[in-house]
Write a structure and sequence with these properties.
The complex is a heterodimer of chains A (217) and B (210).
Chain A (H helix, E strand, L loop, with lengths): L11 H23 L2 H4 L13 H7 L4 H4 L14 H8 L10 H9 L19 H5 L5 H5 L16 H9 L21 H14 L14
Chain B lengths: L1 H18 L62 H5 L17 H14 L1 H4 L23 H5 L2 H10 L13 H19 L10 H4 L2
Classes of the chains: A mainly alpha (217), B mainly alpha (210).
Chain lengths: 217, 210
């Protein structure tokens, strides 16, 4: 009886299994690694119409975040400043600079500067800046070391799981109220943070909601 | 099998070089893998509007509107108080003095607001030597001059609210209470600069080396 299958075919099922296995593992690994805001959002750094440098203004000059993002303490929104805020200084400083052409044009015409939004939550999520900054959550926790960024980039994933990390354990993130806008502040150690955090959470009655309706309505 | 692994390794290298790593800087807007209802056709704060002619979603305040501090209901009872709202007395002149009790809390609020909104130009002690001076800001006055020491509180209020000379208006950044608090703090700065050794309590003179 002649052989129907050549000898090498004995190893075919095993090879197919190995190949499928390798491809399967690769698929799982790459979806885990790439299909997450840690990849899709973090690092987004669009070019802005005016090359505003946070590391110069907030870092080198030490201008407080609230000088421009004034209403962060009272409002849901950390407002982008009107052009008149730029002109408080730039009517004198670098008032002829080409880089500020658009700022001057906007100031004269009243047309808004078309800033590109970097951080954007889904439209079904309602975040309130004021409750966070007034209870010891620093700008730094979500926006990173903005005072060292020449071009602002998206620093944290802003996924729901990431929000909940802090809502479940606020004591790991709350800081003294006078350090909220000091982006260089760090706790002395992890233990010191927890010790201090537990106290703040108790004293300020911090009770971050974990229910859906806290952020989704 | 060898061919498979060669192709596999090559594809992985190609994939990683195209997609990059987590956290690498990119100009590409975030990909929304499951867009569900993440972007809805509604207006959000400070966003663009295609309905209004000026392209703004946030509507400007109509002329003549009287501002009420929503965070302080008591201030709406003072709508007729010219001293408090405009810094003017009953004759329409600049008012002297403060329209509220200057407490420690007011002073601390003033210090806090002064540091955020004023210090960059006027300097931490009100000497006009703020950091912007190093970058070309000129003509910032020293608060410790006779003219500014004698300037009525009402006039300070007007300058902060509306700006003067090259200084811009700060009424959009400081509400009425905060403006008065800043004035109280500026008065303290001026007083401190006029201080002598006698003003320092005996037991604290050592700390200052007096």
């Amino acid at each position: 009886m002649s052989r129907i299958f050549p000898k090498w075919s004995n190893s075919v099922p095993l090879k197919v299994l190995v190949i499928l296995g390798v491809l399967g593992v690769t698929l799982v690994v790459s979806v885990t690694y790439y299909f997450t805001p840690k990849y899709t959002r973090v690092g987004y750094a669009p070019t802005q119409p005016v090359a505003f440098d946070h590391s110069l203004h907030a870092g080198q000059l030490g201008i407080d975040c609230r000088y421009c993002h004034t209403h962060v303490e009272q409002s849901r929104h950390s407002t982008v400043p009107p052009t008149s805020t730029c002109m408080n200084c730039h009517n004198q400083i670098k008032s002829e600079s080409d880089a500020l052409e658009l700022v001057r044009a906007s100031y004269e015409s009243g047309e808004a500067i078309p800033w590109v939004r970097v951080h954007q939550l889904p439209d079904f999520t309602y975040f309130d800046h004021s409750v966070h900054v007034n209870r010891g959550i620093s700008c730094y926790e979500c926006h990173g070391q903005v005072n060292e960024m020449e071009v602002v980039h998206h620093d944290q994933p802003f996924s729901m799981g990431w929000c909940l990390e802090c809502h479940r354990e606020p004591e790991r993130y709350v800081r003294p109220l006078e350090e909220v806008y000091n982006l260089d502040w760090r706790p002395e150690s992890e233990e010191a943070q927890i010790e201090m955090g537990v106290e703040f959470v108790h004293d300020w009655n911090v009770n971050p909601p974990l229910s859906c309706s806290a952020c989704h309505r | 099998m060898r061919i498979f692994f060669a192709i596999f390794a090559f594809s992985v290298v190609v994939l990683v070089s195209i997609l990059g790593f987590r956290g690498s800087l990119s100009e590409r807007p975030p990909i929304e893998i499951f867009p569900d209802m993440e972007r809805q056709s509604k207006y959000k704060a400070q966003s663009e509007s295609r309905f209004f002619a000026d392209g703004r979603t946030d509507r400007p305040v109509p002329p003549g509107v009287v501002h009420r501090q929503y965070d302080d209901p008591a201030s709406s009872e003072r709508l007729d108080d010219d001293h408090y709202n405009r810094g003017r007395d009953s004759n329409g002149d600049y008012a002297e003095g403060f329209p509220m009790v200057v407490s420690r809390a007011v002073m601390e609020r003033g210090q806090d607001r002064y540091r955020i909104f004023c210090g960059s130009c006027h300097g931490g002690v009100g000497d006009g030597q703020g950091i912007t001076g190093e970058y070309g800001m000129v003509g910032v006055p020293d608060f410790n001059t006779e003219r500014l020491q004698d300037m009525p509180e009402g006039e300070w209020f007007e300058v902060i609210s509306q700006g003067r000379g090259l200084m811009g208006a700060y009424k959009d950044k400081l509400n009425v209470d905060d403006r008065w608090a800043v004035i109280a703090y500026v008065r303290a700065l001026q007083r401190a600069r006029l201080g002598t050794e006698e003003d320092v309590p005996e037991d604290m003179r050592g700390e200052l080396g007096l």
